[in-house]
Amino acid sequence: MPVIEGVRLGPYEVLAPLGAGGMGEVYRARDTRLGRDVAIKVLPQSFSSDQDRLHRFEQEACAAGALNHPNILSIYDIGTHDGAPYIVSELLEGETLRKRLSGTALPQRRAIDYALQIAHGLAAAHDKGIVHRDLKPDNIFITKDGRVKILDFGLAKLTQADGNARQTDIPTRRVDTGPGVVMGTVGYMSPEQVRGQTVDHRSDIFAFGAIVYEVLSGQRAFRGDSPADTMSAILKEDPPDLSATNRNVSPALERLVDHCLEKNPEERFHSARDLAFALEALSASTVSSTETIAIPALTPRRLGRRELIPWSLAALFFLGAVAFAIVALRSATSTKDEELSRFYVYAPENTKFGGATDFISPDGRKLIFNVVGADQKEQLWIRSFDSLTARPIPGTEGGGARLLVAR
Q1: Could you list the active site residues?
Q2: Residues 6 or more apart from 375 whose CB is under 8 A from it?
Q3: Who has greater pLDDT, 391 or 264?
Q4: Do 147 and 52 share a domain, yes or no?
Q5: Which domain covers residue 131, as residue numbers?
Q6: What CA–CA distance (Å, rounded) separates 180 from 177?
Q7: Most confidently modeled of 22-26, 49-53, 83-87, 328-332?
Q8: In total, how many domains does the chain have?
Q9: Are residues 69 and 134 in the same domain?
Q10: Which one of 90, 112, 140 terminates a domain?
């Protein structure tokens, strides 16, 4: 029977139900000792006689209780009430990633933020030898302040012993998703899970890739008319290209997701930390190319292609005239004989001038101009009037130069 509101489970007073799932029922409760609200997951007494389910429930408590990370649900306590075990955890305010998605894609920047937090949480778990094995949008919680929390380590498995810790031995079992379905959730299981083989941290990385694919595209990476069809797709098919479902996804992010979804575990990221590092680098490059350019006060209007070439030539002639006038003026007013200086602008080696407008820096001492490299990619370069060399401006590769002109 469900726990009734007002009932005490040890020092915890049940306030209201929050939800239910295959691993038990969840309630909002009050910790009367510390005066804080908590969440309590209770395994119904009728299920406590099921040794398999009971063992998995205890496994969740042990696995999650051994972890202490901001991106993993914190476990506070464990106990038993009328023969039914329960787990006490932090109370989260927000919604699951499944509810947040609701069949729609999220912006790339938000997707990278969530993915990076999930990767950090997985890295912390994997460092403890714990593999989640049931990672999916339903087990990813987004708090009201944007914090990602990984939930439900009910299928977790300790993969290595540490000190006096005893390695658990949980064989692959069937779950309630249908006949012949092995442990995990259809649609997010790795190929090795589908085959019933031994899994390790790379299985979580595959599930991670399936989640990020869904976040970016709004649809599942692997789906079929039946669980069997879905599992067959996981084993034999590749999901549609992300660029075909979402044109705003960068090629680098698409390659990262594809790397996670490799059928062969050896071809995926070797660790969640490597994955997090790749995401951090991708996040930094995304920000630098879309938000920050270290050249303030440059806000020209956007020019059409037909205008760019003549305006660029006019700008070069203008700059030459200005430089000539400055030198001539100094020469005329000086009491000493000085040689006339000329200022020439050459495109860097193996490049040519691009179409974007050239600019003089706000202090009047530098020239910023656009070049096209041998790879046909644009980039902004900068050169001081008193220097013979120019250097590229970091963060303006590819579309960065055009973005600056648009500003």
Answers
A1: 134
A2: none
A3: 264
A4: no
A5: 94-290
A6: 9
A7: 83-87
A8: 3
A9: no
A10: 90
